[in-house]
Amino acid sequence: WPSIYVGIDITVNQETPLHVDKVSAPSLLDLLVSLGTHDAKFHVLESSSIFGYQPGTMIYLAGKLLHHSVPEGEKGKRIALA
User: Fold this and answer.
1) Residue 71's Cα: distance from chain center in Å?
2) Which of 34, 44, 48, 67 is most buried per CB count within 10 Å?
3) DSSP string, 35-57
4) Does the pLDDT value for residue 70 go beyond 90?
């Protein structure tokens, strides 16, 4: 099916270190979806922000421009679609 997205990453039970997305276009937003049974946090360096990233959370982010990370979380299973 046609999609506006270039690709998809699936991350399972892994820490996501601080990074910017190299493949994304600076003028587009990336969609991140959190699934599982965890209580992770989503960090954005430039704004010194920490957001709840519980299952069911969807975040649109200028991933090529903003450094972001998801540190290792507490108990539970974490699945992230990006």
Assistant:
1) 11
2) 34
3) EES---EEEETTTTEEEE--TT-
4) yes
List the Cα angle 81/29/23 in 5-degree steps. 75
Element (H, E) at 69: strand 68-70
Who's near 28: CB < 8 A, 6+ residues apart? Answer: 4, 62
5 with 54: CB under 8 angstroms?
no
For residue 19, what are its two tokens?
């990074």
pLDDT digits (tens, 9 = 90+) for 26-64: 888 999 999 999 989 999 999 999 999 999 999 999 999
Tokens of 2: 């046609």
